[in-house]
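Quick one: co-fold with magnesium ion.
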Amino acid sequence: MWILSKHLKLSHTHSELETLILERTAELQKLSQRLLKVQDEERRKIARDLHDSTGQTLTALKISVSLLQEDCKAEPARLALLSDVAHLTDQALEEIRTMSYLLHPPLLDEVGFACAAEWFIEGFAKRSGINVKAEIANSRARLPKRVEIALFRVLQESLTNVLRHSGASEASIRFQHEAEAVVLEVRDFGKGITEERLQLLSGVSAETGVGLAGMRERLHELDGSLEIESDGSGTSMRATVPLCQTSLAVQMGGRGGVGISAQA
Ligand SMILES: Nc1ncnc2c1ncn2[C@@H]1O[C@H](COP(=O)(O)OP(=O)(O)O)[C@@H](O)[C@H]1O
Ligand SMILES: [Mg+2]
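Sure, here it is.
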């Protein structure tokens, strides 16, 4: 009798602990999703400030320098110096513009993911020297704002990973926009991720990079999923976001997921 009541108590405590863990996990998930939103808002604000404030100051500087150039036409030494200043101002303006657009591309708000993705991929290929083939669904139909931001951040992070970790000289992007879901796949032809590392990355540990965790959270919030496949000939990251959330919630038991697989 005593053993039975102790057993009951233990299993009671066990289920209480399980509930507590589930509650805490859900709270942590909410917190990280909130952090990602704050990060997006912050990036959008910094992008606008850089563009509107520093960008405008540099444009004013450029005008003043060209007036000075007019004044110093007869003084070649000064003119050369001023032409250096004009050149540096142009360079700073270009840097500010690129920085601002990467933080939050205005195209994303204005014309949507497909255009912003094309612009980003083109710039990435130029900056990195990686040959990127892109097959972007030619749909001008807009997606919900948070889906567009999530897809753009997944694209940015995956391509940054290709540059940082894969050693690939070629990559390909595919974006499909169907009625029920959008699928974004970033594939590289680099060295891949070992099975051991993939296992580590599939769990929540110190080994899980911030980039992958961020992608996972963003997609999870939209009931979407991230599948990673990798072998010795490269890596593929496939993000899927359902467009009709209720049907997907039923299909997936209401949970987004991350599938990770290594192929020998
Ligand atoms: N395209 C890729 N090729 C090879 N390894 C990759 C690739 N993408 C991610 N990885 C591996 O996954 C890890 C986690 O990526 P991520 O979460 O973005 O963190 P970080 O880029 O900060 O290291 C990387 O450290 C790297 O080992
Ligand atoms: Mg990364």
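If it helps, The chain has two domains: 2-103, 106-262.
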